[in-house]
Amino acid sequence: MKVLLIDDHPLILSALKAVVQGFGENVEVKGVETAAAARTSLAADADFDLALLDLQLGDADGFELLGELRNTYPALPIVVVSASDRTSDVIRSIDMGAMGFVPKRASNETLLEALRLVMSGGIYVPPMSMDSTGGTTNPRPMNPSLASHAVGHHASQGGFQKPPTLAGLGLTPRQTDVLALLLQGKPNKLIARDLNVSVETVKDHVAAVLRALNVSTRTQAVLAVGQMQQQSGGSLPSWQRPAR
Predict the structure, then answer these.
(1) In the chain, helix, strand, coil percent, each to 5?
(2) Contacts of 198 by beta carbon, 8 Å cutoff, 6+ apart
(3) Residue 203 structural domain
(4) pLDDT digits (tens, 9 = 90+) for 149-181
């Protein structure tokens, strides 16, 4: 397993390396401190199984780099590891195709849990509460001792929402297929092509899935499923594991 770490803080990069190397045997970790170095590394060898990306880079906007990497390497799972735990940053990251978002205040165990979930085809989002402004209801300052403790404490408690279990959504088999493809970030046109149905039919199924999850947008659906995966111990139904 090959992992690319992108973070412009040397101490944090070293701490993340130590944690990720504990992910399992035969884990090869490469760390780079700039977006330019990340581009060079991937251009020379695109055979990475996972990338961890900090949003605050000295030579590039992290969100822009996230979008660039998702477009250039669509099969590469990317997990954002950020000093921020703002709900708006979580939502924007997932909306742009990140497969996970881990605040740097999280524990080592939480980071490893997130990586296991992502590598099994799931999506990890931190526990969070939504307020009327779209921010977290219990924000806390960043733990400055990240480097010596690797990754600090758990993110704020509470859930984005309290949805039913995945098995209890009551989706039809076709709606389940649509949800699986939606979680892979595919737009309606690609979902329609994959399922050999019309775009209008896909729209109807997406609307039904959103109603079942009690959300109003595709990004919220991804966040909701991520929360439900964590509540169920990270187990994933077989339909949700995309082929690699």
Answers:
(1) 45, 10, 45
(2) 192
(3) 173-240
(4) 333 333 333 343 444 566 677 889 899 899 888
What's the whole-model pTM score? 0.67
What pLDDT is stored for residue 17 in this prediction? 92
Residues 118 and 43 in one domain: yes
Q: For 106-152, what is each residue's pLDDT tens digit?
A: 999 999 988 988 888 778 888 764 433 333 333 333 232 232 233 33
Rg (Cα) of the chain, in Å, rounded? 18
Domain count, the chain: 2
DSSP state of 29: E
The owner of tokens 């499923």 is: 225
Helices assigned H by DSSP within 172-239 = 173-183, 188-195, 199-213, 218-231
CB 174 within 8 A of CB 133: no
Helix segments in the chain, DSSP class H: 10-20, 35-44, 62-72, 87-95, 108-119, 146-149, 173-183, 188-195, 199-213, 218-231
